[in-house]
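Project standup — Tuesday

K.O.: blocked on the structure for the chain from last sprint. Re-posting the sequence here as requested.
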Amino acid sequence: MAHLASAAELLRMGSDPAASEACSVLLGEPCLLVELGVEPPPEAHAPGAFDGLAGLPAPTVGVATAGVAPGARALADALDVVAGSEDELAAILATARKAPLATLVLVQLLRGSLARSVPDGLVAESLAYSTLQAGPEFAAWGAGRTARPQEPSCEPAVLATRSGERLELRLNRSAKRNAFSAEMRDALCEALALVLQDASVRSVVLSGEGPSFCSGGDLDEFGTLPDPASAHAVRATRNAAALLARCAERVEARVHGACVGAGVELPAFCRRVVADPDAFFLLPEVGMGLVPGAGGTVSLPRRIGRQRTAWLALTGRRLGAEAARAWGLVDEIRALR
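H.V.: unblocked you, prediction finished:
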């Protein structure tokens, strides 16, 4: 395992202008591992002692496999993610070694997420996502797969049903487990724009047809826009997350089965999330050389905090419905089918 930095070492780094060079992901290990099981020195308890960690060009990973020492809790809170077991640590390191650039960009987005407004956060996420689309890690992921031709469908990608003051929106690509395509994004944006224009729609229910709520972005469309700058312009023009956030107080998401990528990022904006007992949540984007791109670096920290968001993205692990409720990602669990 890589070197474990102590609290005293971190304090020295905070006063060293060359520290960012020494710990950069470009120069060695993709993470700065920090020992949390040992009591830090007295100077670590000073207000703002670890503020400088937010500027380091490396993810900071707390190693709490033996627990967190009582005096190290402030340090633990200042880190990007905390590994509570050897398995968690191994998973985080595997992701960071596979995609060090995407891992760095993820934690940098999350460090400032709660300080940004939702619109500013979505712009920052889109710019970061676009940058990574032009990077070597996403290129390596894309080189290992072949996009399948898109088959036209006579069914609408989103079913909209109005009943009095209530509007039901149902993702409707069940053959592809409701993979979030450009067509689905456009249809959802159109429906949400109407909600924002029509105050008589007092409640919206967002759900999905078939075995899963949403299996994430349609992989066959990844990288099909002409260039990353144009892709950012598209997201700035037509963004389901931005519209959903504006009417979120009227929206309840009802999710089941796979809730992957966009399938967890979008519901997290909603006022209420109801999950079927079979629902599970997954953020796979960093392993593809990207970051969550459907608003997840904005919505998820507001529900579960930045460290748990980083944990989901960097471990690549599934979060079941009960754990999601304990974290606050889900508000209620009940049978939906």
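K.O.: great, moving the ticket to review. The two ends are 46 Å apart (CA to CA). The mean pLDDT is 93.
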